Each structure stands twice: as structure tokens, then as C-alpha cells.
Amino acid sequence: MAGLLVGLVVTVAVLGGGGWAVQQAVGNAAATPPDSQKMWIALGAMAAVGLVFGLVVAGRISPLATFVPSMVLLAWTVVYALDMNRALSLIPAEPSVNQIIREAGQGARTLLTTGVFALMGVALFIPVLMPSRWSRQRDDMDEDYEAAPESSNYY
Predict the structure, then answer these.
(1) In angstroms, rounded to a whole number, what is the distance separating the alpha carbons of residues 71 and 7?
(2) Measured between alpha carbons, how far is 27 from 29 in angstroms, rounded to an integer?
(3) What is the torsional sign of CA 10, 16, 20, 23?
(4) Dihedral sign (CA 51, 54, 59, 64)
(5) Nearest 5°: phi and psi at 110?
(6) E strands in the chain
(7) Average pLDDT, integer, range 109-121
(8) Within 10 Å of residue 94's Cβ, how many Cβ atoms?
(9) Lower CB density within 10 Å: C or N end of the chain?
(10) Average pLDDT over the chain, rounded to whole?
(11) pTM score
């Protein structure tokens, strides 16, 4: 259950946080005098998303923590490859939607159309294939039995 929850958090971080940070960085780079404070905030958000991404990929956590976001990213990429208009229609762009969510959606559009989501989806799926992720973690308490001495009468 914890792995599923972590997977949902990673999905929101990548789609929302990563999208917002990319949109801020791209918009700031296009500004005539770039706002360095906005750029630092965008880079900090990217670093935070990268940290969460790296911890989940490299850490010993449930495989669901990487499986959920990988399937979301890869499925959206496949939909984009098959029907571009349908995939892009999933991005919130209406004026009634909060501006931050619209900005995150525009950044997610950039990440989707450039193939970054496909790359991240594959990177998140690789740990799912590792058998060690699916085995139960052993505690030191599991092996607190005493080995029988060699001169034992038990055969």
C-alpha cells in the first residue's frame, strides 16, 4: 500500500512539479531581461523532482513506487504516438483552471512532445524488472537462530 502511495506522489511530482518547472524555465529564458529569481526557483523545483525521481529509482522501496509513474508516463507517450490530438487534449488549458495548473500542463506538453516522458517512463520501469525489488526485505531478527554445533547428533 505504501508503494502505491509513493508511486502516486512521484507521478504528481513528475507531471505537476516537473511540468511547472520546465514551463517557468522556458518562459524565463525567452524573457528579454531574464528574471534570475524565477530561474532559480524553477531550477530548484527541477532539482527537487530529480531528487524524488532518483530516490525512488535507486532506493529499496516497493516496485509499485516506480511502476505507477512509469505506466502513466509510458501510456501517455503511447497515446501521443497513436493520436496526438487526444493526448494533448488531456492537458488542462481552459481559462477556468488555476494558472499554476495551466503552466504545469504547458510544461508537461513540452516534456511529452520532446520525448522526455518516454525516457523517464523507461527509467522508472527498469527497477520493476529487478527481482530483488519483489523479494521481501530481510531483517536481522529473521536470522537470530543458533546454528547447531558440528558435534551434534542430529543428522
Answers:
(1) 10
(2) 5
(3) positive
(4) positive
(5) -60, -45
(6) none
(7) 93
(8) 7
(9) C
(10) 85
(11) 0.77
User: What's the whole-number mean pLDDT along residues 44-50?
Assistant: 93
Cβ-contact 40, 119 below 8 angstroms:
no
Residues 6+ apart with CB under 8 A from 23: 103, 104, 106, 107, 110
Look-up of cell digits 529499496:
60
Q: Does residue 122 carry a pLDDT above 80?
A: yes
Give the separation between CA 91 and CA 74, rounded to whole angstroms: 16
Q: What is the average pLDDT across 56-82?
A: 91
pLDDT at site 139: 56
**In this predicted model, what pLDDT tens digit does every residue of 7-42 receive, in sequence order?**
999 999 999 999 999 998 888 777 767 778 888 898
Cell 525516457, residue located: 119
pLDDT band at 145 (very low <50, low <70, confident <90, very high): low
For 149, the 3-state DSSP assignment is coil
Nine-digit cell at 104? Answer: 504545469
The grid coordinates listed for 65 are 513506487
Calculate the CA dihedral of residues 70, 75, 76, 82 and round it to 10 degrees. Answer: 150
